[in-house]
Amino acid sequence: MKDLKNKAAKKLGKSGKVEVKDGDFYFFVDKEALLSFASWLKEQGFIYFSFLTAIDWKDKIELVYHLVELDFNTKAFVKTLVERRKPEIDSVVSIWRGADWPEREVYDLFGVSFKGHPNLKRLLLPDDWEGHPLLKDYRDKRVVKRPDYF
Amino acid sequence: MALRTEEFLINVGPQHPSTHGVFRIVLGLEGEKVVSVEPHIGYLHRGVEKIAENRTYHQFIPYTDRMDYVGAMLSNWGYVRAVEKLAGIEVPLRAEYIRVIVGELQRIASHLIALGTAGLDAGAFTFFLYAFREREEILRLFEKICGARLTYSYFRFGGVSRDINSDFEKGVRKFLKTFSAKLDEYRDLLFENPIFLRRAKGVGILPAEVALEAGASGPVLRGSGVSRDLRKLEGYSVYKEFEFSIPTGKKGDSWDRFWVRLEEMRQSAEIVRQALDGLPEGNFQTQVPRYLTPPPGEAYAAVEGTKGELGFYIVSDGSFKPYRLKVRSPAYANLALLPYLLTGSHLADFPIILGSLDPVFGEVDR
């Protein structure tokens, strides 16, 4: 695992960068390079798909994939930025089967669509729900705005 | 002349006794064989992650109780650990020991529910009553230390809300005295019961590589023979101080998953005994500001919850409230394996396979 940082930097080239913090690897990857980097990462032993989530940074949406390598319990966070208008990214379900529900959840709550997902439907909310609640500018018309205490 | 057949769709839930909560699943059948599976979750979705963005760090603790509501102590623990990592809060040694004691008692209580309801699914009603009798003792002990039986909110950043007293300690020791003998009795009663053996052995086989790729954890993963347990692997809190083993299954069938839970209870009782013996004097809390403002950044911390790796991923922007909070729910990842396990099995095996995954829908839907 020692030379993973160099190998990953070589693999990514111009399409991303690597950081190591407290023994955890952080890979910042361009969205075009995600799919090929993901399958490379799996070959390096990161077979355990822990979770996928997204963060709404108001100008961009950041996707965070958490993967674990089991022999040394090495943890990797793969981060990708997507546009906020019509966010779209390649699906990694073909690489990790555990990405199926998490991708549907991110589609449901953030509106990111995953190209190549076999069954991209809302997961937690009803099918006819309007909007994507975890976006920072989401407003539900039925909710009365409560005073901001803080 | 060939008989014309077509797929028969059967809808189970969202209110159905064998689904252990509000869960709906549409099964396509050919005779008795399941050929297509479509699970529907989200009936208990309360938007906990969105709520977290509008609460201070302290205010969110009670919401974690309502996620895994049969393992609330460990839900608390996962959250406070992530915030402690984010804000760099030290925890006194005594508090860590108390956390281990209540955490392991909670694991026993939660596994008792998993096994009790499994007995119920397989028609072993007697065992269900025994399991709930033991759990009741643990709930009474928890009531003594925090006043609640289900939603404890016992953990605080940098410690726990109240110290434990000698009354509690005496009660735990009394419980531990007979518990191991009772486990032997339960093994004979349920696990070597011919009916339960035929219902659970060889049913819902989960190969280790599939479980790993799907991100399964906890007894579901260990039932498939993978010895992955964060208590041993990362030795967070004071788990390095205790001697315990990690039971694993051999075949990865439903029976193995239940068996792993039974043996884990034995190990948990052993950890509680060691922790009580080594309980140091000192503070049970550190002083933490009421309006906690962690520095901007992110942290991920996980504990070995009752269902598996329960992690919290928190992004802070330096204000009173989390900018983003993500719950890595173990029951959610385990439940996602259901289509794989059910396809090709018999309809009658559905309750026992679902029960062996032990989903808690408060945590699946969040």
Architecture blueprint of SSEs:
The complex is a heterodimer of chains A (150) and B (366).
Chain A: H1 4-12, E1 16-21, E2 24-29, H2 34-43, E3 48-56, E4 60-69, E5 74-83, E6 88-90, H3 100-110, E7 113-115
Parallel strand pairs in A: 2-5, 6-7
Antiparallel strand pairs in A: 1-2, 3-4, 4-5
Chain B: E1 8-12, E2 15-16, E3 21-22, E4 24-30, E5 33-40, H1 48-52, H2 61-65, H3 72-87, H4 93-121, H5 125-146, E6 155-156, E7 159-160, H6 166-191, H7 194-200, H8 208-213, H9 219-223, H10 230-233, H11 254-277, E8 297-304, E9 309-316, E10 322-328, H12 330-335, H13 338-342, H14 350-357, H15 361-365
Antiparallel strand pairs in B: 1-4, 2-3, 4-5, 6-7, 8-9, 9-10
Concise structural overview:
The complex is a heterodimer of chains A (150) and B (366). Chain A is α/β, with parallel strands linked by helices.
**Order of strands in the sheet with most strands of chain A:** 1-2-5-4-3
Low-confidence stretches of chain B: none
Q: What is the subunit arrangement here?
A: heterodimer
Radius of gyration of chain A: 17 Å
Label the overall shape of chain B.
globular
Strand runs of chain A, count: 7
Helix and strand content put the structural class of chain B at alpha+beta
Q: List low-confidence stretches of chain A.
A: none
What does this structure look like?
The complex is a heterodimer of chains A (150) and B (366). In chain A, β1 and β2 form a beta hairpin. The radius of gyration of chain A is 17 Å and the shape is globular. Chain A has 150 residues and is of the alpha/beta class. In chain A, 20% of the residues lie in helices and 31% in strands. Chain A is built from three helices and seven strands, in the order αββαββββαβ. A five-stranded mixed sheet of chain A has the order 1-2-5-4-3, with helices on one face. Chain A has a domain of 86 residues: NADH:ubiquinone oxidoreductase Nqo5 subunit (Beta Polymerase, domain 2, 2-Layer Sandwich). The relative contact order of chain B is 0.20. The termini of chain B are far apart. In chain B, a hairpin with a 2-residue loop joins β6 and β7. Chain B is an alpha+beta fold. In chain B, α3 packs antiparallel against α4, α4 runs antiparallel to α5 and α5 runs antiparallel to α6. In chain B, the strands form four sheets. A three-stranded antiparallel sheet of chain B has the order 1-4-5. In chain B, strands 8-9-10 form a three-stranded antiparallel sheet. Chain B has a single domain, classed as Orthogonal Bundle (Cytochrome-c3 Hydrogenase, chain B), CATH 1.10.645.
